[in-house]
From TrEMBL:
GO terms for molecular function: mRNA 3'-UTR AU-rich region binding; NADPH binding; quinone reductase (NADPH) activity; zinc ion binding. GO terms for cellular component: cytosol. It holds the Pfam family ADH_zinc_N. SMART domains: PKS_ER. InterPro entries: ADH-like_C, ADH-like_N, ER, GroES-like_sf, NAD(P)-bd_dom_sf, QOR-like, Quin_OxRdtase/zeta-crystal_CS. The keyword NADP applies. This is NADPH2:quinone reductase. PROSITE patterns: QOR_ZETA_CRYSTAL. The lineage of its organism: Bacteria, Pseudomonadati, Pseudomonadota, Betaproteobacteria, Rhodocyclales. Residues 11-322 form the Enoyl reductase (ER) domain. Keywords: NADP, Oxidoreductase.
Length: 324
């Protein structure tokens, strides 16, 4: 028997169900993967709640690592027995076994274990496209990373530091502040006690930062714009606190001819060559030791609902994985 987490209606974590599913042979272009570990990401909650609508009933989850059990016709890059990991669509990673488009799979380096592979792909490739594609961080740049102790945050802080940036991070507690410092954050702002804009201006001598990476959304959007230097870039890539409200683009002019982008990973990895390039950059910094992946929470896959509750209550740090 094979089981997976599915949901038949949108709502809170209680809509997630542990159900028996049928997984057949892979069709042309597919590979069947038996998961050794599955990643948890905030975007999973957007699918569950309906913020990002899905046809129902639906599987859930965008990230996993495991072993290829079978391949369909026309698949040549991936072979039975390969250790693989992936991030991105189609949804359905919360499963013991699944069939995946083979062109979305990346072969895991021998030195990266399955748990690390499942924990790093979506958050790591998100950090990769933000830091190396959306706004290419240069030595000497000051950057602001919100939720610095979260999954993307810990990876992005380490990577930005390795690139020679001055890294400023926001967190909610002293414990998270210490975690961020241990992972490359030069200056940590406790947003529950400090004025983010005031502190950023103090740290940068009044100039502001070159780029803000904001996965929080509504609660930090206005302050993020005010932290930028003239012609700085705001990359808003998540909605942890809710969707950003509509605003007048003239605001960007008034605040110094700012740039604003709302990127997503899929648009940076659509082509196979782009996926391979970003994946290799991520593997290089992990294998090279510049970025360490922190798997700080582990749950049985059948307890996905509890993991969602903890994630939304901001009880988690770093990466979280499920064990099928």
């Amino acid at each position: 028997m094979t089981f997976a987490i599915r949901f038949h209606q949108t709502g809170g974590p209680e809509v997630l169900r542990w159900e028996e599913v049928s997984v057949g042979a892979p069709v042309a272009g597919e590979a069947r993967v038996r998961h050794e570990a599955v990643g948890l990401n905030f975007i999973d909650t957007y699918h569950r709640t309906g913020l990002y609508p899905m046809p129902l009933p639906s599987g859930i989850g965008l990230e996993g690592a495991g072993i290829v059990e079978a391949v369909g016709e026309g698949v040549s890059d991936i072979q039975v027995g390969d250790r693989v990991a992936y991030a991105g669509g189609p949804v359905g990673a919360y499963s013991q076994v699944r069939c995946m488009p083979a062109h979305r799979l990346l072969k895991l380096p021998a030195s990266i274990d399955f748990r690390t592979g499942a924990a790093m792909m979506l958050q790591g490739m998100t950090a990769a496209y933000l830091l190396r594609r959306t706004c290419r961080v240069q030595p000497g740049d000051a950057v602001l990373i919100h939720a610095a102790a979260g999954g993307v945050g810990l990876i992005a802080c380490q990577w930005a530091k390795a690139l020679g940036a001055t890294v400023i991070g926001t967190v909610s507690t002293e414990a998270k502040a210490e975690l961020a410092r241990q992972h490359g954050c030069d200056h940590v702002i406790l947003y529950t006690r400090e004025d983010i804009v005031k502190r950023v201006r103090e740290i940068t001598g009044g100039e502001g930062v070159a780029v803000v990476y904001d996965g929080v959304g509504k609660d930090t959007f206005a302050a993020s714009l005010d932290c930028l230097r003239p012609r700085g870039m705001m990359a808003t890539f998540g909605n942890a606190s809710g969707a950003v409200p509509a605003f007048d683009p003239l605001t960007l002019t008034q605040k110094g001819s700012l740039f604003l982008t709302r990127p997503k990973l899929a648009d940076y990895t659509t082509r196979r060559d782009e996926l391979l390039d970003i994946g290799q950059e991520l593997f290089n910094v992990v294998v090279g030791g510049q970025v360490k992946i922190e798997v700080n929470q582990t749950y049985p896959l059948s307890e996905a609902a509890q993991a969602h509750r903890d994630l939304e209550a901001r009880k988690t740090t770093g990466s979280t994985i499920f064990l099928p």
